[in-house]
Amino acid sequence: MKIKQGWIPIAIILFSINLSACSPDLSANGKEAQTAPPVDQQAEGAAQAPTLEAAPELDELPNGVLVDPQTGESLLVYNTRGQFEYVLETPGLGSNSNQNAHMAGSGSDIPLVYFSWDPEQSLQVNKQGTIGTLRSTNGFFGMAGANGQAALAFSEVMVDGMAPHSYLYAGTLDTIGSADPFFDLNDETMQMALLPVAVEALGGQPQTVWYTHSAWGIGGVDLIFSITRGLYAFDLNSGQVKQTLDPERNFQGISPDMRYAGSTTFDVQADQSMTVTELTSGQETTFALRSDSDRGSGYAVFSPDDQLAAWLEAGGSFAADPSTYHSVIRIGETSNGSVDYDIEDSSIAQTVNQTDITFMKPVGWLDNQTLLIETRTENWGKVVLIRANLADGTLAYFCDGNFVGFTYP
Q1: With 70 as the cut, is the pLDDT of residue 295 above it?
Q2: pTM of the predicted model as reported, rounded to 2 decimal places
């Protein structure tokens, strides 16, 4: 796939622009990715790890987008054209809602599971407008679920001495309320905690929980990308776990079918280029950073057919006065490592009719040619989703709010 040539520029109408009307922000850069040999895979916490097979392809593309309007009391569902569909009440919803909520099913009247702070920490479910408690939690850290299914996993973190002691749980709407932890980590050395990132399910029952070790209690004004170590797959049937990314890799995203993962090196002094790993074979493809991306890369998301990966590259600093931060979203091919598209933050700013974009990142694909981008304007609290259409080379306003997840037919 290569960029289309000879596009006809159009004016900005209803926050929509043709990318060829700008500087070359969505273009092939002619740089080939570097391919490295497979890495060794070792088990974590098991003498013999299971052999992982490629997950089956998703039968359906998303039919909607779950969005957080930042009221703390509800989530909104839009169809894939950006048209509002319905509201889901979520009293007590916490922040970081993309790790705090899961649409636990497909079709109509889908139950929504979410983490609530009020009146106590708990997992709540909104089922056909009725809200009930699934279980109380203590130190909730994050949640992930199987796309379009009721299977989900979550983690908790307790302070054990001076170290975080984290626990992983998995189940369905019927079992998660009484589920015991199936795995735990007491990390005195690196101060990391277990964070689920994906769930494989069969017939609505969780089979494999994918997780990473994530930095706990770390933040800062100039922290751009998440800090993690490794990627692991826990087989709930056998009780065995397999390491699929080395702990020297900083995990940055997994494909919908759990076939590919994006990562950078954990060594902050080393090259922070985005690397895509085929998890069954261990084959790696590394996309070289742009010369001005001195802060590295992250936030990898994969198209439903696994042919394309999108990620963020950044340079400069938020902490500088004035800020020198700048970023670009890049889109490359997993089959041959070419980078086909660069979407500059200046193009996103034009799309939302703003002077500057404070922050942006790719968050998911509506289909194999349509990427969703979450942006923050000069007003950090103003969050907007942008749709990038690779088929016709346009950027367009999608809706207001944070991306939380997808709904499925």
Answers
A1: yes
A2: 0.86
